[in-house]
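Exercise: predict the structure of this protein bound to alpha-D-galactopyranose.
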Amino acid sequence: MENLNMLIKEFKKEFGEKGRLETFFSPGRVNLIGEHIDYNGGKVFPCALDFGTYAVVRKREDNIFRMYSVNFENLGIIQFNLNSLVLDSNDDWANYPKGVIKTFIEEGYNIDSGFDIAFYGNIPNGAGLSSSASIEVLTSVILKDIFKLNIDMVDMVKLSQKAENKFIGVNCGIMDQFAVGMGKKNNAILLDCNSLAYTYAPFVLENISIVIANTNKRRGLGESKYNERRASCESALKDLQESEIKITTLCDLDFESFENVKKNIKTNESLIRARHAITENERVLEAMEKLNSGDILSFGKLMNQSHISLRDDYEVTGLELDALVEAAWEEEGTIGSRMTGAGFGGCTVSLVENNHIEKFIKNVGKKYKERTGLEASFYIANPGEGARKLEEI
Ligand code: GLA
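Solution:
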């Protein structure tokens, strides 16, 4: 409420008092297990967070969009026209909503005017908690509402991903937009990224919390090695398919079949990337069994193994993430700890017994600083609701 009231004030300051305002919210997400396999047809287990991005919107009569973010107040109001929706580096963060608007129009949705909008987000940017998916899905929900579009959440999720792939140029999978759009309070989502079949799993653990630790090492997804990793997986898949192995995604293989066919993968690099994808998918399935049987300790061990595979086979961790995770593993009360999101900086996710959290934050923060010279930040995360309209004002 506090964030929203502040944002309404900011909106009025930038764009004037008159007219009807609408308000919206979209969360960030954290992935508990199943990393770098959404684009390999695997299963992932993220949840939406209870922090995210707020927007205050007022429809306009003309074709102008004026966008303002409290997080980037130095950039001022960014303005563009409905008739020229092109990627423009001067428009900085506003390219995300712009790309979503363009994608909706290309898909045939009738968007026939501009709007004024103010955003405020409390997801740390570039921290691997999906601040970009959050603003994309938020824009989709806004378009649906103010232009009265007939579209459901899963389609909005797909168009948001498409905007990121085609407009922004980051070849991300579907996980982030899905978690942000379809999140449910107190639940994580088991999502099959191949079929988009999903189930909710209650994720409120007795005496245990989800602790997110931010390396505070900024990671630009666009410039990172993300697309490269994806290309290595695609080339492993191509090698296998060309050897008459009947699969459509890497995660169609279980580990045993992978061991039998891996000789067909031409480069060692593609082979180890594929090995991560296939073992990670198996870990997710095993983690679900453990969770269902109430064996949270084993769930935590699988999180640890996930990190090791991301470190050694997928090579997306780096000094900062490893330092945080290794320090977490040494703490009493840590059930499991791993990097989350794309990697190369960003955040880790840990399950920690509540009565050890204070000490966890103190000790992990201290060891991290000793190893990297950086200050980590910590957040306790609660699985939250997906993107939605708030009340009208
Ligand atoms: C980023 C991408 C997701 C997913 C993760 C890694 O967050 O946006 O699609 O690939 O990295 O699991």
